[in-house]
Structure formats: structure tokens, C-alpha cells
Amino acid sequence: MDSHDSHEIAHVMPLKVLFSIFGLLIFFTILTVAIAQLHLGRWEIIISMLIATTKASLVAIYFMHLRYDNPFNAMVFVFSLVFVALFLGFTLVDVEQYQPDLIPVQDPIATGS
Amino acid sequence: MSTTTAPPPEAAPPEHSGGGNDDHGHGHDHGHDPFLAHHFGSAKQQFDAGKFGMWLFLVTEILFFSGLFCAYAVYRSTHPEAFANADQYLDPMLGAANTAVLIFSSLTMAWAVRAAQLGQQQLLVRLLTITLSCASIFLGVKAVEYSHKWDLGILWSSMFNPQLHAHHSPALLVMSIPAMLAVVATAILFGLGKSKQKPVQAKFWGCLLITSLSYFGGVGLGLTVPVIEGMITGETAVEVAEHAAATEHAAVEHAAAENAAVKHAADHTADGAATTAATAGSVEAAAAEQVAIDMTYTGIFFSIYFVMTGLHGIHILAGMGVIAWLLYRSLLGHFGPRYFGPVDFVGLYWHLVDLIWIYLFPLLYLIG
Amino acid sequence: MSDNASRTATAHVHGHSEENYLECAHGWKSWAFTLDHKRIGVMYLVAILASFLLGGVMALVLRAELFTPNKLFLSEDMYNQMFTLHGAVMTFLFLIPSIPAALGNFILPVMLGVKDVAFPRMNLASFYLWVFGAIFFLLAILLGGLDTGWTFYTPYSTTTNTAVITATLGVFILGFSSIFTGLNFMVTINTMRPAGMTWFRMPLFLWSLYATSIIQILATPVLGITGLLLVAERALGIGIFDPARGGDPVLFQHFFWFYSHPAVYIMILPAMGVVSELVSTFSRKTIFGYRFIAYSSIAIALLGFLVWGHHMFVSGQSALAATVFSALTFTVSIPSAIKVFNWLSTMYKGAISLETPMCYALSFIFLFGIGGLTGLYLGALATDVHLHDTYFVVAHFHYVMVGGTLIAFLGGLHYWWPKMFGRMYNETWARVACLIIFVGFNATFFPQFVLGSRGMPRRYARYDGEFIFFHQFSTTGAMILGCGLVLCAGVLVHSLLRGRKAPANPWGGSTLEWKCSSPPPHHNFDWPPVVTEPYQYDHIVYDPEHQGYVEVEDIPEEDEVTGVPVESHT
Predict the structure, then answer these.
(1) Neighbours of C389 (CB within 10 A)
(2) How many Å lie between the alpha carbon of B52 and the closest alpha carbon of chain A?
(3) What number is the ipTM of this complex?
(4) Which letter does DSSP use for residue C543 in this model?
(5) Do A88 and B73 count as a contact with CB atoms less than 8 A apart?
(6) Given a contact as 3+ CB pairs under 8 Å, which chains touch A?
(7) C38-70: per-residue pLDDT in tens?
(8) Nearest to A84 by CA among B356, C168, C176
(9) What is the pTM of this model?
């Protein structure tokens, strides 16, 4: 059987799963737009990033087959996110720390005029 | 020329079958597999290598975009007010529409992988065409957004000059020229394929013609969404943006006026009169300065906006290129249960492009 | 097709030997469109040696200019462009691809026991991307030069009128070339290891290339986006890095060093891998602490991402970040020291033979030791404020990059030269060249430590009279170093023309590449090699008939006095 052959190489995603994931993704998109209308202030970024991460996880786990894939690939993916966090984290900490030392742009020393 | 080229390893006959270093050669007959490269032991090994390679490539893409996310995070954390300001210029409904389009294209792409795995040739061709068309629609909506911003002077830092009213330029038309050319070219090639009775070519260019036309569907979507919004709220999005620009503009003018007043007051101080007026003036001057700073960083927000969405758009274009290649190969019937790696790998790339947009959408359009 | 295949397969069973990779096809097309990793490696080798020559000549011109405190023949602007291009060419065109792309491409699949890397086309693409990147660099020289330093710091790089955009695009393209190589190596090692080749049977050179690939994949894209943003800054004025538009130039340095500090380990890790091979082979002793060396490569690759801020101690970085980065910097010295101690322990009580590659390996350990230890002064916050941007820094990184990477590259080149080209070189003259290089190198750069600690700033075309002695000492050393390198090149070229034919295993190496003929056949092995533990030398004995080492089934009886096997079996 042909389908048996492909099972050997990689997992075939059932249509039901694909459609349900699509439905969930659309639902979360509507949800995040709706929440943005409420203007929740500082919570806004946290909530919308949580929703975005949920959506991204759904895409990665089901559309990108990570759940059925070689776990090493998933590890590589997570690993890259760790390094992104490292890059953003260190840079943000430093930038926020040195903000008080900055010379404003209007200052003639900074603009060189 | 008496030179002979080296036999390309891919074309060279696979010469070891089930040898000592390869113990999964029993079930498969290598000689009959046209898509198994000579240096791989089995189709499974070739697939795993390709897949791992694709994941590593995705890692490089993630880190590539991380620079932009870092720039966003830095400026957002240091100048939140400028970012809140910038939010008014972007229409979340257009962003949401594009998000839905991309998510749908992700669905059809994932489905296309399944079709390839199960050897459903016709379905595969259709799904790839739908995916391509969705990408086109996305670009059409994006073109509408970009041209509105061009008309309003809402551009990157050095060109950031918000106008009170949109001056109507042919920006949208200019941006659509490549798509128009694509329509003409694919239509001609489609016709040629039909007349010369080359069914594969005809089908291929036919699918690409649908793709090119979809761009205008996207433009239409981009133009109608704000109208529908306007019907609901009673104000069009363009007007909203114009209104925002007007507020900004007034603030800047006000600031400039204040500046003049400060100078004036300072002159008076020099004359030895009205010191209190100067203090009052300097308070107002500080406020004006704040507005100017906000405008500077709103400009930087739009630099980041254009670089992020621009690079994402380039990735969409590149993805369309490789999906078109898949389309051609699937018309030739290359993919089936034994060999579907390329569809799977391109699919991964396409999902990553979608995944990046999933973050760009709230960061750029929603968070005020 | 399938008949053909089975015929070829039968021929193999009967032990038919293919022609070697150099002779299996002829004509320029057989090189330009080759997908054979060995030929791509050789093309890379030629290309990087050409850029090394270019960068080296620039270095000699710079040193010659510094022979006198006042102008000799270079104007200040010319000097600025010269040191920028020296740095950029050496870093991006030579050091980064040197060991991985040239030696690694050739050796990795053979050492692993496979026919090719996972993606041969991508491998060729990597080479051509390198060529395009190099063309952009040459264009930058023609279009008004480049005077930003190889670091492209803003805001100077956004305001200077030299060819920053062209050079940055060159860097962007070279970055992709580097990513392709790394990706290929990682996939090859992960998915193509033949039966028997477990992770911990892999030669340490492969571990180091794997660690290098991790860095290439994780760090290089950030350089790509940094370059693109710099191009956009100059071409469009996006203001992200430009203080005149409210941007943050220190942010640029964060972006740049997130790549460029790990890039230092892209340069040194493969060098350490080469040295691990050399030390074990020429001590004829199993490598000491195999797992520690393997893990320390990975540890260096990962820790290398945590320390980039130590380049920015005096750039306006915050005190908090500087303190954290300084502390983390010291952690990198741990895995580096683990390697050095393991090499020394491998040599201890080994049967050391001082053939040319081993001479380079010993030079490496000595020079890398100095380079590494002086790094500690620069990683310490307080001393760095004094030493930053002085010749001390110049000396430090040349000890690591030249004394480390270049010396190991030369060692590896001499080690694998017989395998690559099938010819032996003149051992005596090659050793003399190594000695001259060692002496010349130290004479060039040791005085620079003194210069730097006395306050001589880097990147200056003119200097105060009090520094004359050390500058002239250094320039003299550079000329000696140049002579040594010319001699080394002469020895290698001579071997190509007149060298004796190389045996399959001239050094008694125990890794797989010595089990195929020299040069290797087109598909590397006539039959799949049997993979055993690496670094076992008992069954490899010298055979005077072949003038090389051969494997024997049983350990032969040895002559009690000389230790030379009484009789060797083929």
C-alpha cells in the first residue's frame, strides 16, 4: 500500500486536525482584535503576546508536524527561541539601564551642529 | 572542446546497495528511485536530512528576524508614548484580514503536504494554487496599505512627514505594475501552452494567471474593508488616519508656535523684563520639545514597521517562487508517497512566514 | 540505468579502484560545476589563500608605514582604508571560511565515512556566494575604499563617504556562504553517520566543526540583519542606529557583537579541532579526555553567545551589563583551558615525533596560551579601561587569530596536504618555514603588548617618538613572518611539482580519512570503511616498503630494542 510507505517516512496529518487548528487560529485572531478594542493599557501587550504565542504554538505543533516529528527538530526550534530571548534580554536590560545617561538629540553636542 | 564534465553525483548510478555501512537497503530497490541522491542510503535518510536542514534554515530565519524584534522591543520600551501614537495610523482590520488570509494559506499548504503524501495529484495542484493565490491577496492588501501611507506621508524616519490630507498619488497604481505585467505574461504563456498543446505548461501558467489575478482581489479587499468599517462606525479608516495626522500636525504647529514664543520671551528677558513670562514659556517649550521627540520616535516606529513588513513581504515573494516550483513539479507528477520531501520542506518555510506574521500583527497593529 | 548501476556495484565488489578525484574528470567545467566536496574544498582553499595573500600584503604595507613615526608613504586616509580592508578581508574572506570551508569541506565527509555532504549543490552555492562576496569587497576598494574599521560602527559608518553599502552587502553575502557551510555540516553529521560511527566515535575535528556550525547558524543571521539595517540607514535614513534621527548607536554595537563575538569562536574552534587531531597522531597516543574535549567545544560555542558585551565596556554600555558580561567572559576560559590541559596530557609519555604538522601544533598551544591568557586582562573591567583600543588588544587578538587559527590552519594544511594532493613535501624546509613563522610572529606581536600597555592607541597612522623602538621591532618581525610564509608556500608548491608520491597514511593517523588512498577516489571509499574507536594506534605500523603506515590485523611482535615491528603485513 502506498499510504503505508509514506507512514514509514513521515506522519500524515488527518484532515480533521488541520481544519480544527484552522478554526482555532481564526478564533484567536478575532479574540485578539476584540481584546485590543478594550484598551487594557499595560496588560494589552501581555495578553496579545500570550494569544500570539498560543497561535504560533498551534502552527508549529500541528501545521509544522512538530508533535509527530523527530524530537530533535523541535529541540532545535526551541533552542533558537532561547537564543532570541538571550539577544533581546541582554540588549533590553542594557538599553534601559543606560537611558538616563543619554544626551538628548536636540543637544548640539549630539547632533554635531 | 574535448573536455568532459564530471559526472554530477546526483546523476551517477547508485553503486552500493545494502553494503556494510547501510543496513536499511533491503526493503528498497535504489536503482528504481529517480529522486534518491547517490550519497544517501535510503529515501528515509534523504527525507530526514532535508527536513533537519530545513529546520536549521528556519532557525537562521528566526534569528534574522530577531534583530528587528529586538529593535522594536528597545524602542518600545524606551519610547512607549511614540508607539501608542503610531498605533492610530494603522488599520487593525486590514491587518486582521491579512492574518486570516495567511492562516488560510497555511491550512492549504499543510493540506497540500498531506495530498502529496497520499499521492492525490490533482488536489495537490489545486491546493498549491490556492496557497499561491492567498499570498497574492496578502500582497494586494499590503499594497493598499503602503500606498495609503505614502499618500499621507507616513513613511520611515527621514521621510516621516504626516500630512493633514492624503494627497492622491498614483502610488497604488505604480505598486501594481509588477502584478499587471505578471497577468499579461502568464496569460500569454498560458495561451502559447494551449495553442502548442503542451498541457503541463498550459496548466502551470494557467495556475499562475489565477495567482496574478488574485493580487487584484487583494487590492479590492484592501479597499473595501475600510469602507465596510466606515459603514459600521460612520467614519472611514482613511479619515481616521487623516484625523490622527491632523492632530499630530496641529500639535507640531502648536509646538513651533510655542518655540517662537519662548524665543520671544527670552528676548524680553534679555531686555530685563517679564521674567515670569519666560518661566511659563519654558514650561510650554518643554511640552513642545516632548511633542517633537514623540514625532521623532513615531518616525522610528514607522522605520521599524516598514523594515519588518517589507522583509516579511520579501519572504512572501520568495515563498511564492518556491511554491511555483513545487506546482510545476507536481504537474509533472513528481510527488507521491515515496517522495514528497520538497512539499513538506517548503511547507515548513511557509508556516514560518505565517508564524512571524502572527507576531507582527499584534505588535504593529494592535498594541497602542 | 539500473543495469548500469548493478554493473558498477559488481565492479566494486571485485575491488575495482576508481580514479582519484583529481583525475576522474578534466577541464575547467569539471571544476566550476563540480558537486564533489573535495573539489569544492580545493577551490575554497585556492580562494582563501588568495585573499590571505591580499590581506597579508596589506598587513606588511601597514607595518612598513609604521616603521617611522611620521609619514613614510601612506596618507592618513590611505592608512585608515588599509587597516579597515586588512581587517575585513582577513576576517570575512580568510579566517571564517579558512578551516571549515577549505579543510573541513575536504575532510569532513571522508573522516565521517560518507560519500559527500548532505547537500552538494548548496555546498557549491556556498563557494560561489563567497566569490560574490569577495567581488563586492573588491568593488568597495574600487568605489572609494572603506575606512570604518571592520566593525562598521555607527554613526561614523552612516556619515563617511566611503563605500560602506557595497562592503556591507559583501558581508551579507559572505554571511550566507558561511551559513550554508555550517548547515551542510550539521545535517551531514546528524543524519548521515554510517553504521558504527556513533557520536562518541567521531574524531574531535568533527566535534569542533559541529560546534562551529552551531555558531554559524545561530549568529550569522544577526549579522545579516545588522548589515541590512545599516544599508537601509545609509540609503533611506531609517534612523534606528543614527543619533541624528533619535537612533541609538550603542544598539548597533549590540547587534554587531551578538554575531561578531561568537564569530571569534567560528575562527578558533575548528583550529582547536585540528590541533586535537595533530597532537594525538604525532604523540601516537589516544587523546586524553576525549569527552571533555568534545563537550568543551560545544560549551565554548554556547558560552560564546553570552559575552559579546565585553567589546563595549567603554562604549556607553551600562555598568550593570558591563559587570555581567565581564563575569561571563571569564567562564569561556574554562573550556578553553580544559582543551589545553588535555592536549598536554595527551603528549605526556607519548611517542612524540616532531614532523611539520606537530611543530605547528606545538606553536599553536604556546601562542594560543598567550593569546588566551592576555584575554583575561581585557575581560576584567578595570584593566580594560586602560587597555581598550590600544596595541594590547591588537596583540591579543593577533595571538589568537594568527597564532591560533592561522598556525592551526597551516598545521592542518601540512597534515592533510598529502591526502589532498597525493604528494609529500620537503619535511626539512617545511619545518624551517614553521620555525621562521613562529619567530617572526612573536617578534611582530610581542612588542605590541608592551606598546599597548604603555598607551599606544590602535588604528593610528602616526605615533610619538617614544614608541619608535617597539614599532621598528614589530615591523622587522612582520617582514620575517612574511618571509616564513613565502617559504612555506614555496615548499608546498614545490611538492606539487616535484614531491614524492604520498602513501595512504603517511603519519600513522587513525581516523577514517587515512584509510582511503591519497588522493581519495571520487566517491571517497572503494568500499565502505569499517568504523572503530578513533585514536587507537596499536594496529597501525610503519611499513618501509610504502614509506607510510599500514594497518595490521594483529599487533605484531616488536623488536625489544628499537620498538620497530619485525615484520609488517599488508
Answers:
(1) 14
(2) 6
(3) 0.91
(4) E
(5) yes
(6) B, C
(7) 999 999 999 999 999 999 999 999 999 999 999
(8) B356
(9) 0.89
